[in-house]
Amino acid sequence: MDCCIVSALWYFLVFYLLFHFLCFIFADADFTLLWASLVGHRPETKLKGLVVWITGASSGIGEELAYQLARCGSRLILSARREDELNRVKRCCLEQSNLQDEDIFVLPLDLLERASHEEKMKTAIQHFGHVDILINNGGRSQRSLFLETNVDVYQALMELNFLGTVSITKQVLPHMTKRGTGSIVTVSSVVGLAGAPLGTGYSASKHALQGFFNSLRTELTDYPELLISTVCPGPVQSQIVHNAFTEELNKPVATAGNQEYKMPTSRCVHLMLVGIANGIKEMWIAKQPFLLFNYAWQYTPTIAWFITNILGKKRVQNFKAGMDADSSYFTKPKTS
Questions:
Q1: Which residues contact 125 (CB under 8 A, 6 or more apart)?
Q2: Is the dihedral of CA 122, 183, 181, 174 positive or negative?
Q3: What is the CATH number of domain 34-301?
Q4: What is the CA radius of gyration of the chain?
Q5: What is the pLDDT of residues 96-123, one digit of tens each?
Q6: φ and ψ at 252, to 5 degrees?
Q7: Which of the ends of the chain has fewer CB neighbours closer than 10 A, N or C?
Q8: Alpha-carbon distance 117 to 165, whole Å?
């Protein structure tokens, strides 16, 4: 009998290590998240009927979250600055789901206007009575070299990505602790775990979010039914590059480059919802080689630094040559 138990444990260990290795090399999500997608709770079952508040819901990951959650049967609060775009997203949600008009509430919100966030929370509660899930998705990226970038850009990135997110969380969290249940899910980035050139301020704001929510999670151990989760996507097909900060506050990105090589937004969002449905505290979502890079930083930081120096140099070369900073790591930039 003991021999059978040992054999079973041995086979399980071999399977676990093999599966982990395959995730390490070939997958587009970390081991825990991929395992949950295979054997865990399904989002359309777990998230049906829940009230989900999405910031940054007018485009990109936020817009796709609205569509997939609507098809799951979640009731939605859609927030961003552009009310007309939020209404467009609401119409699309209604067209592709069984939700009714009253199941989707458009709530315009500017993360920079922190004095308004308490009133926005009250308005959300007035409409639905409660909030089950807050998805902190609003924010902007960066494409500029530090030596050429005004300090005002760094202030704007921290005000928006970090303090704006902390502010809206500050309003929602007491409501959830009072109920004893809820989820606060924050979209960070792979550069919230490891830095990258051309995004020093963006990376700093995402590192700040990682530190804040990791610390907050430990403060909430008396609330085992309250999930604090961070999502760390790699490059995703969205408008985030088009709207990125550059070296000056109001200067637009010259060229966004080819987005086709990046992970489809629909795939990223599906994995996010799997993670939320299964209570995963941190999710790594990225196509290779970006996911492999995350694993390198986690387990072999010395090797990761070596790779970072090589890829970072290529990224800066691409940027200076007018190419997309992400898409052509392994091509030679044109010099003429």
A1: 131, 175
A2: negative
A3: 3.40.50.720
A4: 21
A5: 999 999 999 999 999 999 999 999 999 9
A6: -75, 165
A7: C
A8: 10
Tell me, rounded to whole angstroms, the distance of Cα 195 from its chain centroid: 16
Least confident residue range of 48-52, 143-147, 299-303: 299-303
Cβ neighbours of residue 283 closer than 8 Å, sequence gap 6 or more: 29, 30, 33, 229, 230, 231, 232, 271, 272, 275
Distance between CA atoms of 110 and 334, rounded to whole angstroms? 41
CA dist 66 and 273 (Å) reads 11
Phi-psi region of 49 (alpha: psi -120 to 50; beta: other; left: phi over 0): left
Give the CA count within 13 Å in the CB-facing half-sphere of 169.
Answer: 23
C-alpha to C-alpha distance for 60 and 54, rounded to whole angstroms: 12
Among 119, 110, 105, 118, smallest CA distance to 51 is for 105
Q: Which of 202, 223, 299, 329 is catalytic?
A: 202
The pLDDT, as a whole number, for residue 336 is 40
In the residue annotation, 67 being an active-site residue is answered as no
Least confident stretch, 20-34, 239-253, 266-280: 20-34
